[in-house]
Amino acid sequence: MNKLLSLIFFLLVGCFSTIQAQQQGFQAMDVFRTKSVAEVAISPDKKFIAYTLSVPRPFDQQPGSDYRELFIYELSTGKTLPFIKGNRNIFSIGWSPDGSKVTFRASTAQSPGMQVYAMDMKGGEAYPLSKHATSVLQYAFLDSNTLAFTAEEPESEERKAFRSKGFNLEVYEEEINHISLYKSDITTGKTGRLTEGVTIFDFAVSPDGKKIAVGIAPKNLIDHEYMFKRIHLLDVASAKITLLVDNQGKLGKMVFSPDGKKLAFLSASHVHEAVVGSLFVTDVNKPEPFEKLPNFIAKLDASAIDVQWKDANTLLFATEEGVDIALSEQKLTDKQRKVVLVPGKSVFYRFSYVQGIIAFAGNSPEHPAELHVSDLRKRSYKKLTNHNSWLSGVKLARQEKIVFKARDGLDVDGVLLYPINYIQGKRYPMIVYIHGGPEAANQNGWVTHYSTWGQVAAARDYFLFMPNYRAGSGRGVEFTMAGFGDQLGKEYNDVLDGIDYLVDQGLVDKSRIGIGGGSYGGYFAAWSATKHTERFAAAVVFVGISNQLSKRNITDIPQEDYLVHWGFWNHEDYEKVYDVSPVKYAHQSKTPTLILHGKDDPRIPPSQGLELYRAMKLHSEAPVRLVYYPGEGHGNRKNINRLDYLTRTMDWFDHYLSGEKKTDLPEKYHEGISE
CB-side exposure of 587: number of CA atoms within 13 Å? Predict the structure, then answer.
């Protein structure tokens, strides 16, 4: 039996191993049968809620990403109607203005990339609303017959001619075409371009369809998308564009008020803030300077993550508040918000709102994301779907929010999962999961995914600690700015203080602590394995930074890195940059370190993994292994690579956190995959 067939056999057998789930807890293979609701959209008449369901790709198919199916929930009957199921990927769901059709983006064999499709609620097959030469990225209706959408401009005839002759060279960052905004008549197919010479990364249409707020950047580069989008107003009839808000720094969602007179938007509060967590409103006809606009969450210990309008003078917005999510409403004239969905009720990141009804994909510590609905007038709240009924037969470990004191007295929170067989008074090994960003946070919801371990770690009798360290989101601007120009300072001390707190509580065996994470979390893990090697018995570094000096010169977001994290360039203080680079201390490492990296990662290129591997291999006593994932970028997309990451990292922790002093390496392939 060759290696591929052996792998498939192993996976299929694993699918039936949950007969023992009640005794074993959540297993690694359970991750790959977990479904989750992704997008939701309420119909204009409030009769239906469209939603997409993320469905794991079967392992007996060609490796790839999860599928996304389309469902319609009928509110009057409580019935779930499957509209598009199977091997399909449905994105950007919405509704036609009259609510008679559900709309979405999808790719079919007949279309050039992703196009906009519609399905009539009365039945029938999906049909295209767009037939553009390149993939549609975003879309919205201007009226019942007119679609606005963004798409990258087609390749030039000159470039096509060169390629046809075998010249496939790439002039770096100079051949990326702009993303333009188009207007299309869906009846005739006649399409016209509304913008030229700039890139449109985001847009929002006014209720009357006559104006479009556009997030414009000079170039179609990820750095420009992060840092240089500014809000402009486009008049649809004339295609004239004027600057509306000269926002400073990162820009998020924009949405017009129902009367079209105001625009709410999410943004960083200033150019050096890493989090798009402030909420502003500007008058469309009489805009004020950005510095004078009121920030509706300025006094909250929170970060805004989504916004809608309840009416022309009232905002609805979701906030990240430490490990919890809240939903609030606030009149423009009020000084304080009114919480309508209290923190801790459910974890969600986006919501749909139509005339008093809110729907969202919510998750909890006990269950992945399902469709939820809340009636603001009745103050009701209900989970509508259950796509993971099999979970009722799986024993889950205890999970809770914890709060501890940092060394300077600040309260820091996080999520803690207990060993599934926890016995009070006994000390256990612990894995510390570090979130990336650092402008992110861990929520007290469903935390079991291929890269976060969650219940899989708890089922192996580990504590899993997920701290929300400084420089992250969910605690306001000051909390985020604590990491500016101070990598691995207070933010890293917060993690050490959380570990010490759990050791002092008598929960954790301090000689058996592992640490891991991806991106900035991988950076923390690499730092732990080198600079603080005496504290960690194992480390997993996923797409992580090892040498800040070289990383800052080759990442695809050098301006973002400079503006929101450092405040100075390498040549201005190269010693300070190298001082916070794990490779500087690699020679002293005694921590067994597993390094994993996507071979096509543009954010933190794979050479970062190689630098740490080579430095440790040559100069340290620590066991070290480097694994590359071909075809993967900044995180794994293919199911087979996600499985390998999850199982390989857990095997690594099992090997080195067992309590035995091991200096050997685990098997090259995890059990069941090797021949």
Answer: 2
Maximal CA-CA distance, the chain = 73
The string of DSSP codes covering 328-339 is: EEEETT-SS-EE
pLDDT, tens digit, 9 for 90 and up, residues 117-127 = 999 998 889 99
Q: What is the rounded distance in angstroms from the CA atom of residue 201 to the CA atom of residue 230?
A: 10
CA dist 377 and 384 (Å) reads: 18
Q: In angstroms, how far is CA 439 from the centroid of its own chain?
A: 11
First to last CA, the chain: 8
Distances (CA, A) of 250 to 181, 229, 269: 21, 7, 9
**3-class secondary structure, 392:** helix
List the beta bridge partners of residue 363: 347
**pTM, to two decimals:** 0.94
> How many whole angstroms separate alpha carbon 385 and alpha carbon 99?
22
Q: How many CB atoms lie within 10 A of CB 114?
A: 22
CA-closest candidate to residue 646, choices 518, 548, 533: 518
Bond before 438 cis per omega within 30 degrees: yes
Question: Edge to edge, what strands does the sheet with 91-95 contain?
Answer: 91-95, 101-107, 114-120, 127-128
Q: At what angle do helices 520-530 and 607-619 cross, to 10 degrees?
A: 10
Q: Which two tokens stand for residue 5?
A: 């067939």
Structure tokens at 201: 């990364």
What is the tens place of the pLDDT at every residue in 90-137? 999 999 999 999 999 999 877 779 999 999 998 889 999 999 999 999
In angstroms, the CA 26 to CA 111 distance is 40
SS3 566: helix
Strand partners for 43? none
- Is the separation of the CB atoms in 557 and 226 below 8 Å? yes
